[in-house]
Amino acid sequence: MSDEKKPEFGAPYQGAREELAIWKRRALEAEAKVREQDQIIDRLGAALNEDNGPTFMGEPVLRSGPCNHNYHLGECTKCGAISPTE
Ligand SMILES: [Zn+2]
Questions:
Q1: Where are the domains of the chain?
Q2: For ligand 1, a single-atom ion, which residues have Cβ within 5 Å?
Q3: Which pLDDT band holds residue 13 (cuts at 50, 70, 90)?
């Protein structure tokens, strides 16, 4: 016996059931949207990594041009190269 054939529950119950179904659908839609956005963010991140290469400490690794070495204690503070004059 389906719920629709139980008159004792009446209109308010039916209305609440419909409202619940609407909210449930909205929740599922929101969930799907979040998943979609997660995938978009993942794709953007992957594309960004492809463009910028690997990152170091959250900063893009400098690949273009030679390092303008800044030696400190015989080691470049930017790229870690050992000072040739040391
Ligand atoms: Zn350097």
A1: 3-52, 61-86
A2: 67, 69, 76, 78-79, 81
A3: confident
